Amino acid sequence: MIENATNNRPETPHILIVDDEESLRNLLAELLTDLGYQTTTAKSTEEALGLFEKTPYPLVITDIHMGGLSGIELMQIIKTHNNDTQILVITSHASLDTALLALRAGAYDYLTKPFETLELLINAVKRALEKYALTTSNRQLTQRLKAGNTNIQTDINNEERILLVDDDTSLRELLAELLTDAGYQVTTAKSTEEALGHFERTPYPMVITDICMGGLNGIDLLQIIKQHREDTQVLIITSYASFDTALAALRAGAYDYLCKPFDELELIATTVKRAFEKIRLLTENRRLREQLTNSPAPTKNQP
Q: Which residue, 179, 176, 132, 174, is CA-closest to 14?
């Protein structure tokens, strides 16, 4: 076990990295430490469990295939200890079956080795830690409101509306049908210009957009949307995949980036669900903070 830390401040996220490949384990630890995270490494699931029992980590990055317990089994045990812990699964034996198995078992995300660019991994780590931070912050705010005998408002508007933008009619209709069947309210647009007209009338919590279309491209649309409504989550999809466009999208504030054609539509549905979880947590966090600010100070007789 190797532990690295830029500092030991409690607010610095601590990540447990589990992989039986020493070179990759050390590479990830060095990368994440350089980014300001605390990291601890383990070469087996058994070693990882021993570490986790002493220190519940907010994020665990684990390979699937190792000697002894698998990464999926490790994930299931960790979730029984601390359900808030986010788990990022990585594997060099990639398949849709293992991806879906990991996601259905509660993994935050799933990435394949070797990583063609580490920035995609860094973005997944950032998103996972954002979810952990929002979840724990909301719990703490709720406890403070309860301690002050404040009635907690629960009327959050969870309207799950999606603006879907693609000039490919068949794909646009397919995705709209899939997402409608999943319970979302979907509005479609065949161009970025049409999408902006919809968005100016009704800001959407989530936008799914292709990159390459006539007129403004998806990155332009993303940047304009973020100026209007920073909390809107934007999922970029494209059939002209390159890591330059992926990085441009992520750096412009995209929630995630997926390549067409989609081998498994369930992976899209999972990504959309994860984005709405973030939207819900952000909304709840803002509401709880407003309540705490506006609630009367507890009297001396109150706990």
A: 132
